[in-house]
């Protein structure tokens, strides 16, 4: 695996770096570093404007086929873009759920009509999306969803509740996994529906997190409606589509994550040097271990992206690695900060970046499929071990 740039890739890296340097000015320069886990409330309007500027210049949906509005960038070019974007400390994107999750799902499973209707809005960042998977009684056990949908003429009528729905309070649409056949159980009888959020039957209630912010939400469907044509794939075969989305979620976007993690570790090292924690041999050893783990994650991500075909169960390895590593980075940050990390920056509850990192990363090993679930997937579907006994 060669991770160095060839001549064409080096030229593309210069193009990305030069464009970011030219356009991250004025209000966008002030937006550097805004957003991210625990800070998604920061500068939403300017970040949305930034995303739309990226779209105008062809920097959204890089890897998509040209027929769908992308640039057909190679995997290495996409890696380069994410690396340079993170190194420039550019604002965290607001359209990533549509671009990285739903868009690839529609290209793989959607009808031509759905692709024509929804993909341009994702490319242009004109419509924002959220993901309606988890429920109070069906989090990592996604097959247990209880939200229902039944046909009423030419529309689906939805009833139920979703939870931990990232950015639902700002989304225009939600892709929802719902039970459309009440006679079926578990993975069977589920359908993947595209549901407009701006309608009387949809209510969003923010969840206040440990960080004091509310990027997660509860979403209630009370006779909410969507057109019959807005089911992706076959009716009753939504499980396959939903698993495809999860595979895409652990794809190219993880490159941006691991570069961001490197920047966070660099900040932790700087803090350790400032307050003398670097002299503690135990903390020094943990910092070294974090650097080794980051390099292992980088190689694993690139190897996964270089495989042929859509993401499969192997993507669970990447999810398990990055979520555990990020949680440990948060714990390392607090240990380096020492007793001072126990004090809020200012009242009543203003946290510094390290405190937000620590508190938010407690969720990393839970959302998107808990570590326990990922280990079961790896054991059963990758290694071929016997299935865990279930009641």
TrEMBL record:
Keyword vocabulary terms for this entry: FAD, Flavoprotein, Oxidoreductase
Annotated GO MF terms: flavin adenine dinucleotide binding; oxidoreductase activity, acting on the CH-CH group of donors
InterPro entries from the UniProt entry: Acyl-CoA_Oxase/DH_mid-dom, Acyl-CoA_Oxase/DH_mid-dom_sf, AcylCo_DH-like_C, AcylCo_DH/oxidase_C, AcylCoA_DH/ox_N, AcylCoA_DH/ox_N_sf, AcylCoA_DH/oxidase_NM_dom_sf, Mycobact_Acyl-CoA_DH
Acyl-CoA dehydrogenase/oxidase C-terminal domain location: 236-383
Pfam hit, one: Acyl-CoA_dh_1
GO CC term, one of those recorded: plasma membrane
Domain Acyl-CoA oxidase/dehydrogenase middle: 130-223
Cofactor requirement: FAD
Residues annotated as domain Acyl-CoA dehydrogenase/oxidase N-terminal: 8-123
Top-level lineage group: Bacteria
Family recorded in the similarity comment: Belongs to the acyl-CoA dehydrogenase family.
Name of the featured protein: Acyl-CoA dehydrogenase
UniProt organism field: Saccharopolyspora antimicrobica
Taxonomic lineage: Bacteria, Bacillati, Actinomycetota, Actinomycetes, Pseudonocardiales
């Amino acid at each position: 695996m060669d991770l160095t740039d060839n001549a064409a890739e080096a030229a593309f890296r210069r193009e990305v770096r030069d464009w970011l340097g030219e356009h991250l000015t004025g209000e966008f320069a002030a937006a550097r570093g805004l957003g991210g886990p625990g800070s998604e409330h920061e500068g939403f309007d300017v970040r949305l404007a930034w995303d739309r500027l990226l779209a105008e210049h062809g920097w959204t949906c890089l890897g998509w086929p040209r027929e769908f509005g992308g640039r057909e960038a190679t995997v290495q070019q996409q890696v380069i873009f994410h690396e340079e974007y993170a190194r420039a400390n550019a604002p965290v994107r607001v359209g990533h759920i549509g671009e990285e999750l739903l868009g690839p799902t529609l290209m793989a499973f959607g009808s031509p009509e759905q692709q024509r209707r929804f993909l341009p809005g994702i490319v242009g960042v004109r419509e924002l999306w959220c993901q309606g998977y988890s429920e109070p009684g069906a989090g990592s056990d996604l097959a247990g969803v209880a939200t229902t949908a039944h046909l009423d003429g030419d529309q689906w009528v939805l009833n139920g509740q979703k939870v931990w729905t990232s950015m639902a309070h700002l989304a225009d649409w939600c892709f929802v996994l719902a039970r459309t056949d009440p006679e079926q159980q578990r993975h069977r009888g589920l359908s993947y529906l595209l549901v407009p959020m701006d309608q009387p039957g949809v209510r969003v209630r923010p969840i206040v997190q440990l960080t004091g912010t509310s990027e997660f939400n509860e979403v209630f469907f009370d006779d909410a409606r969507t057109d019959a044509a807005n089911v992706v794939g076959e009716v009753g075969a939504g499980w396959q589509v939903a698993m495809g989305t999860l595979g895409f979620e652990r794809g190219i976007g993880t490159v941006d994550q691991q570069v961001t993690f490197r920047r966070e570790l660099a900040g932790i090292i700087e803090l350790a040097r400032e307050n003398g924690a670097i002299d503690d041999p135990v903390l020094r050893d943990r910092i070294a271990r974090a650097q080794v783990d980051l390099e292992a994650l980088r190689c694993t991500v690139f190897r996964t992206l270089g495989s042929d075909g859509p993401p499969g169960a192997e993507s669970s390895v990447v999810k398990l690695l990055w979520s555990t590593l990020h949680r440990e980075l948060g714990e390392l940050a607090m240990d380096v900060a020492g007793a001072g990390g126990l004090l809020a920056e200012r009242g009543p509850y203003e946290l510094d970046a390290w405190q937000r990192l620590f508190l938010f990363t407690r969720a990393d090993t839970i959302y998107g499929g808990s570590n326990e679930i990922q280990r079961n997937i790896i054991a059963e579907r990758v290694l071929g071990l016997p299935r865990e006994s279930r009641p």
